[in-house]
Design goal:
The structure is a single chain. This protein has 289 residues and is of the alpha/beta class. It folds into two domains: 5-105 and 272-288, Nucleotidyltransferase, domain 5, CATH 3.30.420.40; 111-269, ATPase, nucleotide binding domain (Nucleotidyltransferase, domain 5, 2-Layer Sandwich), CATH 3.30.420.40. 45% of the residues lie in helices and 19% in strands. The strands form two sheets. Strands 3-2-1-4-5 form a five-stranded mixed sheet, sandwiched between helices. α1 (43-56) runs parallel beside α2 (74-87) and α3 crosses α12.
Length: 289
């Protein structure tokens, strides 16, 4: 195949990671830009994050594989492909979901279950025949139960209910401060005008987890863990995998010790990060062809 360079991109709702490697697997560059989920951040912001990342590369890649939140539907695949082709017209481009490249990095092409718990949440299972099964990952509006945004939204709801009941709890003040609001009752308006967004709401998860096991943080985190456990159970059952199959967990939320403990499953450490999973998958595709 000759001397080529590979670019792996892991694009999510909070950040986008770029990894540039040569054909011997030597890292040439690694850095992050802003969010690139075109559904939650918008196409303008997603394109901006990709553009800034490409501009920072020390050299242009021959092969690029990007895994993106928001690439689970044909229109999403086309959006990211058009962005990358415009930015890297000389490169061969592969587009996958962020869940898929994370699975490939964590487990490889073997049967197993990957739980991704970051801004959103999704479980991905691989059958023995290579078929991929997903559970969850339907975005912040209709799904992503147990993810960072879900936890942050529940925290705001609890704070608003506390305000309605006349309480002046420390929890309310903590959420106000974390969001940069004078009053928690300003949250609906701030969401509407864009002062707070998916990323800032998801960032509340770390504050909620820090307060565990005090209430209401305990109830929120316990329920989040139950949702995440359910995703694993559903994906494993649909993929006809044994309970002893390999399981991995990733994401800013999934790497929290208390969250893993509450889920109650045995997770093995990820073999590689998602951006490298994208490169490994691209290598496999080229070898197969």
């Amino acid at each position: 195949m000759g001397s080529v360079t590979f670019l792996g991109i892991d694009g999510g709702g909070s950040k986008t990671t770029f990894l540039l490697e040569n054909d011997e697997g030597r890292e040439l560059a690694r850095f992050e830009t802003g969010p690139s989920n075109w559904l939650s951040s918008g196409p303008v912001k997603a394109r901006e994050s990709l553009t800034h990342g490409i501009q920072r590369l020390p050299s242009l890649p021959d092969i690029v594989c990007g895994g993106f939140a928001g690439a689970g539907r044909p229109e999403g695949v086309e959006f990211y492909r058009s962005c990358l082709v415009a930015l890297l017209p000389q490169a061969q481009v592969f587009v996958e979901t962020d869940a898929f490249i994370t699975y490939m990095g964590a487990i490889g092409p073997r049967p197993g279950i990957l739980l991704i718990a970051g801004t959103g949440s999704i479980a991905l299972a691989r059958r023995s025949d290579g078929t991929m099964i997903r559970a969850g990952g339907w975005g912040p509006v209709f799904g992503d139960e147990g993810g960072g945004f879900w936890i942050g939204r529940e925290a705001i709801r609890c704070a608003l209910r506390a305000k309605d009941s006349g309480e002046t709890a420390e929890f309310v003040s903590a959420i106000e401060n974390a969001l940069g609001l004078s009053r928690i009752t300003d949250a609906p308006g701030a969401w509407k005008d864009g002062s707070i967004d998916v990323r800032s709401v998801a960032a509340l998860a770390s504050e909620v987890i820090r307060r565990y096991p005090t209430d209401p943080a305990r109830g929120i985190v316990d329920q989040a863990a139950a949702h995440l456990r359910s995703l694993c159970d559903v994906a494993g059952r649909r993929a006809d995998l044994p309970a002893t199959c390999q399981k991995a967990i990733s994401g800013s939320l999934g790497n929290q010790t208390i969250v893993k403990q509450l889920i109650g499953l045995e997770f093995s450490p990820a073999a590689n990060p998602p951006a490298r999973g994208a490169i490994l998958w691209a290598r496999d595709r080229l070898t197969a062809s």
